[in-house]
Amino acid sequence: MIRFPCPRCGDHIEAPNLEAGTCRACPACGETIDVPDPAIRRAVARLDSAAFACRCFAWTYSGLLIAVSLVALNQGSPWAVPGLFFAVVTGFGFAMLARLFEFLVANSRG
Ligand SMILES: [Zn+2]
Q: Which site from 48, 49, 70, 94 is most exposed, i.e. has the minimal number of CB atoms within 10 Å?
């Protein structure tokens, strides 16, 4: 059984598992509602935490690499500029990945 509240009247609705992802009428107000799919909800929750992890990783990783590169720059190391470049590119990549996950999460919630 899937239990969920009606988005319109808040009445508690029960639907058999087989009806996950389908539409049915609310018995209280008659509104046509989507029966949530627990598997999809779990996948969305995972995607949501993946987006969060990517964002955290992008910030800490890039921040650390930029800090190290700035120290290297200060010491006149030839690796400073490539290091900075690498930090920005990979940080941007992970930030974009996080954005993609967030986009998918937002779209799956309709
Ligand atoms: Zn209702």
A: 49
Residue tagged 């808040």 (tokens): 10
**pTM > 0.85:** no
Distance from the alpha carbon of residue 13 to the mean position of ligand 1, in angstroms = 8
How far, in Å, is the centroid of ligand 1 from the Cα of 40? 22
What are the residue boundaries of the structural domains of the chain, listed by start? 2-34, 38-108
CA-CA distance, 8 to 86, in Å (whole number)?
50
Per-residue pLDDT of 20-76, as tens digits, reads 989 999 999 999 999 989 888 889 899 999 999 999 999 998 899 999 999 999 999
* Nearby residues of 5 by Cβ (< 8 Å), 6 or more positions away: 11, 12, 13
